[in-house]
Amino acid sequence: MSYYEIQGGRPLSGSLAIHGAKNSVLPILAACLLAPGQSVIHNCPDLSDVSATLDILRLLGCRADRDGPTVTVDATALCRCNIPEHLMREMRSSVIFLGALLSRMGETELSYPGGCELGPRPIDLHLSALRLLGAEIWEEQGALCCRRGRNLRGRELCLSIPSVGATENAMLAACGCPGLTTVVGAAQEPEIVDLQNFLRAMGAKIDGAGTPTLAIEGGAPLHPAEYWVMGDRVAAATYLCGAAAAGGEVSITGVAPETLTAVLSCLEEAGCTLRTGPDQIVLASSAPLQGIPPVRTAPYPGFPTDAQAILMAALAGGGVEYATALALELRFRQRWWDYTGLPGSLQGRVCLASLLGFALAGWVLAWLTPRLDRRLKRLNGGIRTAVCRSVSLIFALDWSLSLLWPNAGTGITCPLYFAALCARQG
Known about the structure:
By secondary structure, the chain is an alpha/beta fold. Helix content is 40%, strand content 19%. Helix 1 runs parallel beside helix 7. The longest helix is centred in the last third of the chain and has 35 residues, at 344-378. The model is unreliable at 115-121, 327-345 and 403-426 (pLDDT under 50).
């Protein structure tokens, strides 16, 4: 199908059950490798990423069958620990096999994952966590090789950012490491809790999911398990935003309302009426949606990045002041123009004007420096040093003010500072 044709103008009504969470089922399927035997996973969505994961499991020697929303994985005959590039490139989440294969087989070889059109998403945190556990990792002819080191054991891991994938890989690898592994700065997403519950069903000793600190007692004997995957909160947010924009009353089941707190609060603020119960959300919308304050995405329990575009589309009629998504390559870095406090509609113009201003300042500096240098050389050494120090002091005060109060820094002294510095070097 090359396009969708939509005839709007009608309110939505009815009820539907939300399918299983893709971001939860993928690490759970990888976790099936940890123990020989047959695991049964219910509420498994029929998605391309899931199909690619099942293909990887079959290639590794497992038997993987689907019967509607139920998937059966038998990892008894697991015989391979390398994944070819064409399968790794199908989806980014394939890197989750790194921790599972290291735990079960003691070694693995795979290529860098792909499948993401949204920007670079490096796996350095995954590799760093495994190295801290004692794994030996190196690159050989474009392949990523990993094996147990002599000192593979549990220890404290500190994640610099709450990466979901790195947290999941650390959990899977730690199950095969003797001793206590503590993950500090772990992701707190509901999908992490779901993976913990499945690992517990397999016999793993793990605690702390949903908090910044995880504790895994590795080396416990594991066995296959039967498990029901949580509902997909991103799919639930999509249906809710659709009903909010079109009007009507929609009931969705199979998803926990507490996993969507940030989205539900935005929809309520926009004028929707919400009723929640155990694994159920009912949304009613009758009037045009109202504008809401700025929305900024953040790691859970903040507003989810995957729901940001959906909410903006729903609010297009009522208006939203601005919504800022921390882009994948900038998800945990702040852009300087976000500190200006300006409305989103002006930030781009301010950015362009600032770039032009810096270019002009550079040209002026190139013209000014030799002339300033000649003038300062005519002065005696003491006066010249005093001038340079004064400009440096002004720059330091201006920069300190901008750090304490981002809107206050002028940045005007930057060219003066560098000009004075060049003159002093002369």
